[in-house]
Structure formats: structure tokens, C-alpha cells
Design brief:
This protein has helices at 5-28, 228-234, 350-373, 378-435, and strands at residues 30-35, 40-45, 53-58, 62-64, 77-82, 85-88, 97-98, 103-110, 113-120, 124-133, 136-145, 151-159, 170-173, 176-178, 182-185, 193-197, 206-210, 222-227, 251-256, 261-263, 268-278, 323-324, 327-328, 449-457, 460-467, 473-481, 489-490, 497-498, 502-510, 514-521, 531-537, 543-546. By secondary structure, it is α+β, with helices and mostly antiparallel strands. The strands form six sheets. The protein has a nine-stranded antiparallel β-sheet with strand order 8-9-10-11-21-17-16-13-14, with no helix packed on it. Strands 5, 6, 7, 12, 15, 18, 19 and 20 form an eight-stranded mixed β-sheet that branches. The protein has a five-stranded mixed β-sheet with strand order 27-30-25-24-32, with no helix packed on it. β16 and β17 (206-210) form a beta hairpin.
Length: 547
């Protein structure tokens, strides 16, 4: 069925209006500092995830140091733990209370900084300062206890790195490339600077997280290198690194403040660091990179000669002065045969000398003739033929196996390229979807809340939802994790969806001040995991939580 011309025009108009509104609103939701002379650009969210940010650096144009640049990113965020209770300014910190409910000063520009302030229960004043420094940002995290009682305070920063467009930016700690998730105590590091760059060879931008550059501020005391897709989306405070999980496609840093600070009444704590980028470094003979015509890393060519066993192209590339088969070798041993002059006794006359020389020459000719005309026995020749055939067959088999290995390697590399391309396309699609998403302005939630709970009675699992608010809700769904290998039995079908690991319990509508439950059975399971997520629709915002 074709759409009429009038309806199509109306649809186009509404779509354009929605996009223009989204773009206008998005621009209103960002506070930024941008200065080419400082080579620094900071963008901060003022609407939904207040205080989350992204950072850029200028070099022949603006380049990203963190993900989603030049727009703020809810995946680069702060979190606090106050007497065991969590607060965060990102939706990804699912187990924390939103800092958005405690904003007292939305992000504003003050001199060369963007400042955001919150006041938490108990009269704790929290302040985030993002200072534009040469090539990046100076970050400080400040907590003032204005109350008389003491509080235990802990702070954390998740930094979703993306240097010069590479979301899997390379992270070096103490000069070592970190390829899988790993945790470090800052006190154990010989260098307090973490290097992050877009590629290993000839990087465009080299960024540095300087844990000691914040002056009077305290530094972070623990660093975790993590895959952001796991660390950012889970949002757990004590993130458990997995040494077998790679970070080469989506790297990030989690920085922890000194654990745990007991903040007495009137005391304060300030933690900070610098995250800056610098221009592409000029090649040197001590940069650890094979470049500028070097025969091996930092030696040969225009650099100093290479040591024994290192690569070479010419003899002059080696300390020994000898390059054999592309490797520096020891000096060749040259054998020199000295001629021996025999002096005949003086008593021999000229005739005797000539006779002796003729005899020697005749003997030499006889020996040469015998050697030339002598043929090896047939039996020995025949014995060598099978050995030659075996050697040739062995060499042919080695060539065949090498060819099979080469083809298998080509297939493996082609598969890696295909998978990487699929991941890239998926990430681009996700990024585009997030960019066109309309941000809903903050509205104060209505009184009451929606609470989801899970109870076990024998083999029965009871999932309950209580609507304690004064508003009706619809499209109510609760996602429950199912232990691996178990099979739930649904005793009351309410449109429950089941996959390998999750149950989607569709409650539908739930009136104000009412409750509902769904019961299913799990047999042979000792531990029952907690609920994962609750979602619903309502006319006005309603707080929701999982007990």
C-alpha cells in the first residue's frame, strides 16, 4: 500500500522537526571549554548524566582523548562510596544512587575550569573541577565534610579512553603494553605516568595519565586496566579484572582514591590527576620503535651498530662488522697458508737441484692423475641414492607443511579482519543510535517508588513487584537471571520470555498502590542469583529499585 503525497510530507516534516529539536536540545545540554592555544577541549553534560565529560586535544585539527568526543560521555564518570552507600553521576553505575538528585551547582565555566557541585546527605559537599591544561584536562575530585560526625569516604573515576579515534587505545604501564585486564597498586609502579596512544608504530597522538601532576592534591592509589564494555556497563564498584579478557578493542582505566578515607567533621580530601596528549614524537635511536631505516630496534642504519644476534642489512649495521643471513655474527676466521721455501744444502750443485725438482713434479702429476681417474665403487654410489631420495622427499614434505601453515594463517587473519569489521560496524551503529537519542530533561520524581523483590520457597521462585507510588504504570517487565544449566518451569504464564540465561517476566499494567507476582520453579539449584533489571512506562518519573 503506497503512502499518499500529503502523508509523506507530514512524516518528513515531523522527522525533521524531531531531529532539529534533538540537536538544539543536545547543544543546550553541553558546557565546554575549547582553546586551540592550550590544545585543550573539555565537554561536560549538564542535563542527564550531570558532570560526565569527554576530552579532546588539538594537533592539525581536534582529536579525541576519550570516547564520544566532542560530546560528553556517560561512560566517563565518577562514583563515591560514603559509609558503604554508593553515589554516581552515570546511569551505568546501576547499583548506585544518582548524583543528579543532589546537584547544587550545575556545570559552569570559571576561569579556565568547568566546575560541578553536589551536596550529599549528612552535609557532604562534593566538587568536580575539570581544568583546561596544555593538551588535555586536569581532573580534581574534592569532598568537604561540613558536618560534625565522621564519614568513611572512597572515590573512583572511570576513564573511557579513545585516542585519535582508536577506542582500543594502547595502554603502557612502566613501559609494558597491557593487552589484557590487569590491576596495579600505584605505589608499586616505578613510573607514575601511564602512556596511552592510538597505535604502536608511529603514533599520531601519545596521551599521558600523570598520577603525580596535580600539585597539592592526593593521587589515586590503584589503577585497573579494563575492557570498558564489561567494566563500564556493569558499573560495579570493586571491579574484578579478568586476566584472560583482552582490552585491544575497547580499553579503559579505573582509578581509585586512597582506600578508605575517614573524614572527620570539618576535614576535606582532594584527589586528582592530569590526562594530556602530545604531538607525534620524532623518531630517535632510543624510542623503542623500529623506524628511520634502522636494521633492528634503535640500532643499525643511522643509529649505533647492532650487537651480536640482532638484525642487520649490511656489514656496517653490526658491531662485529659482519652481517650473515640478516643477523649480526662474529668476525669470520680467515685461514692464510704460508708458503714454505726449502733451501737445498749448499753442497748440491745445479744439476742435482734440477733432478730433484723433476722427480717432485713427476710424483705430483702421478698423484693428480690417480685422483682424477679413480672412480668410487658402484656399491657405495648405489647406497647413496636411497639416502638422497629420502632427503629430497623430506624437504618436499617440509615445503608442503609450510605451505599448509601459510594458507591456514591467511585464513585466520582474514577471519580476524572480518570479525573486527563486524565489531566496528556494530559500534558505529550503536554510536549513531546514541547520538540521535533525544535527551529527556530532568523532572522531579513523584512520591513513592516501584520495588521489585525475589523470594525463594523451596523450589519455587516468587518475583514480586509493588507499586507504592500514586500513579499507574504499564509495560512493566522484570529481567531475572537463570543459573546456567537450569531450566525454569513457569506455573503461571504471563507472557514470560526465556532464553539461555535470562527470564523476561512481563507483568504488563500495575495500578497505583498495588502488587503483583509471578511464580516459577527451579529444581536442583543451590544459589539463586539476584534480579537484573526492572523497567516500565509512566506518565511522570517514578523511582524504582531492586531489593
Amino acid at each position: 500500500m503506497k503512502m499518499s503525497f500529503r502523508k509523506r510530507n507530514i512524516l518528513v516534516f515531523l522527522t525533521l522537526t524531531l531531529l532539529l529539536t534533538s540537536i538544539t536540545y543536545a547543544a543546550d545540554c553541553v558546557v565546554e571549554l575549547k582553546d586551540e592555544s592550550d590544545a585543550s577541549h573539555i565537554a561536560v553534560d549538564v542535563c542527564e548524566n550531570v558532570g560526565t565529560f569527554s576530552v579532546g586535544q588539538y594537533y592539525d585539527g581536534w582529536h579525541s582523548l576519550s570516547y564520544n568526543y566532542p560530546n560528553p560521555w556517560r561512560g566517563t564518570y565518577i562514583a563515591l562510596k560514603v559509609d558503604g552507600k554508593l553515589y554516581s553521576n552515570s546511569v551505568y553505575m546501576t547499583e548506585a544512587e544518582s548524583l543528579g538528585d543532589y546537584v547544587t551547582q550545575y556545570p559552569y565555566v570559571s576561569g579556565n575550569s568547568i566546575i560541578t557541585e553536589w551536596i550529599l546527605p549528612g552535609d557532604l559537599r562534593v566538587r568536580q573541577v575539570l581544568e583546561a591544561v596544555d593538551g588535555g584536562v586536569g581532573f580534581s575530585f574534592e569532598v568537604d565534610n561540613n558536618a560534625k560526625e565522621d564519614f568513611d569516604v572512597d572515590m573512583r573515576l572511570v576513564l573511557d579512553t579513545m585516542v585519535a579515534g582508536n577506542d582500543g587505545a594502547l595502554i603502557y604501564i612502566d613501559g609494558i603494553l597491557i593487552e589484557n585486564e590487569e590491576s596495579f597498586k600505584v605505589s608499586d609502579l616505578s613510573s607514575k605516568k601511564i602512556k596511552v596512544q592510538d597505535r604502536e608504530d608511529d603514533p599520531l597522538i601519545v596521551a599521558v595519565v600523570d598520577l603525580q601532576s596535580a600539585g597539592e592534591l592526593e593521587g589515586f592509589d590503584e589503577v585497573k586496566v579494563a575492557n570498558w564494555k564489561t567494566s563500564g556497563s556493569l558499573g560495579t564498584w570493586d571491579y574484578l579484572v579478568n586476566p584472560s579478557r583482552t582490552v585491544d578493542l575497547d580499553s579503559s582505566l579505573i582509578l581509585y582514591s586512597p582506600h578508605v578515607v575517614s573524614l572527620e567533621g570539618g576535614d576535606s580530601i582532594r584527589v586528582g590527576m592530569h590526562f594530556t596528549g602530545r604531538l607525534r614524537e620524532k623518531p630517535t635511536c632510543f624510542d623503542g620503535i623500529l623506524n628511520q631505516g634502522e636494521a633492528d630496534i634503535d640500532c643499525g642504519g643511522s643509529c649505533s651498530p647492532c650487537a651480536l644476534g640482532m638484525g642487520c642489512v649490511k656489514n656496517r649495521d653490526c658491531v662485529s662488522g659482519f652481517c650473515e643471513s640478516g643477523v649480526c655474527a662474529e668476525e669470520s676466521i680467515t685461514t692464510t697458508t704460508k708458503s714454505t721455501t726449502t733451501t737445498l744444502p749448499p753442497t748440491l750443485g745445479m744439476d742435482y737441484t734440477a733432478i730433484i725438482l723433476v722427480i717432485i713434479l713427476a710424483l705430483v702429476l702421478v698423484v693428480v692423475y690417480v685422483l682424477i681417474t679413480k672412480k668410487p665403487p658402484k656399491k657405495k654410489a648405489e647406497e647413496k641414492k636411497p639416502e638422497l631420495k629420502k632427503a629430497e622427499a623430506k624437504k618436499a614434505e617440509e615445503v608442503r607443511k609450510a605451505e599448509e601453515v601459510r594458507k591456514a594463517e591467511e585464513v585466520r587473519k582474514a577471519e580476524e579482519v572480518r570479525k573486527a569489521e563486524e565489531v566496528r560496524k556494530a559500534e558505529e551503529a550503536l554510536e549513531k543510535a546514541e547520538k540521535v537519542k533525544v535527551v529527556v530533561p530532568q523532572v522531579k520524581p513523584v512520591e513513592g517508588e516501584v520495588v521489585a523483590d525475589k523470594e525463594r520457597k523451596g523450589e519455587k521462585i516468587i518475583v514480586k513487584v509493588s507499586n507504592n507510588s500514586g500513579e499507574d504504570i504499564s509495560k512493566l517487565e522484570v529481567v531475572d537471571e537463570v543459573p546456567k544449566g537450569s531450566k525454569p518451569e513457569i506455573s503461571k504464564d504471563k507472557g514470560v520470555l526465556v532464553d539461555e540465561t535470562n527470564l523476561v517476566l512481563k507483568f504488563g499494567e500495575l495500578k497505583a498502590k498495588t502488587k503483583a507476582s509471578i511464580v516459577y520453579e527451579l529444581k536442583g539449584v543451590e544459589e539463586v542469583p539476584e534480579l537484573i533489571r526492572i523497567s516500565f512506562s509512566s506518565e511522570n518519573p517514578i523511582n524504582a529499585r531492586i531489593k
